[in-house]
From TrEMBL:
It comes from Dallia pectoralis. It comes from the Eukaryota. This is Uncharacterized protein.
Amino acid sequence: MQKPQLISGGKKFYQFLRDQCPVVSETYYPTFWCWESRIQTLLRPFVTAKPGVSYRNELIGAADGGQISLDWFDNDDSSSHQNAATRPTVLLLPGLTGTSRESYILHMVQQSRELGYRCVVFNNRGVSGETLLTPRTYCAANTEDLEAVIEHIKRTNEDAPLMAAGVSMGGMMLANYLGRTGRETCLKGVVVFSAGWDVFECTASLEKPLDRFLFNSYLTSCLQAGVDRHKSVLEKSYDIDHVMKAKTIREFDERFTSIMFGYRTNDDYYHDASPVHKLKSVQVPMLCLNAADDVFSPRHAIPVEAVKQNPNLALLITCHGGHIGFLEGLWPRQSTYMDRVFKQFAKAVIEQGSDLSDLSS
């Protein structure tokens, strides 16, 4: 087994991670009976425990008349941060059709609870049971809802430090947001797990026969189920029958997502949704964890060279781990390697964040 590869655009961030997050220097040993990437990816939701978490739901209005569902874990029992006004807050963004009930989100809430922090999960429009008020859902390229959520969190907790973690598409959205906003964000730091960096490469990889069978068809049907659930609002604006006949994510995006967000072609949408083009503009410390065997984000498309050009970026690449897998130990019920990266980085950003103030120096 090899140690994970840690790449950063600057010595300062690299050294900070080595000092504050020992997990980046540890060899990651995948669970031996499910080390293969596809098996890791498929089994994780079933073998990892789902910690019990009670959320407080809040619906906030969006500029177009729609609504956004936030799930708060207030952590009022926090012993290390008893003052709610200054309690550190972690914003969590789930994957493509994910919600606050995904096991990987619940695990990050559990880790945050242990640190004494508050969490808020940003559920993309229409996925978590709330009514869709306008014919608009979400995509990786559009960050307007994310911007509204961050502004709302900061307005309601203006003295609390805020950081964010995104998984898969949630990570892509976060990276795109940071690339667009540069220094104009209140986020102290960001960690991104299993993001797809170049959407063309991701969709091509997922269209290979085995991966199309194992993942693409299932995810497409999940996306279609979301459309069907809100058919009465969406059918006025889109050809729902045509959307429901899509066989792949690419076909779904051609018939639905790219049209919804006003792109001339699906290729235009995929270019805009690919965070690789915006990494040079990120001005906030961002750590990215990818597995070299992730079929959703193929190794050759992991943006090693772009990361090397920006002192605010760091990339941690493990040999194994699959897509949001990172299972470890004989029976991986509890925390994964990804959870440990999250916990150590969150603590480092919140408690030692002053060391990250100017990474370009």
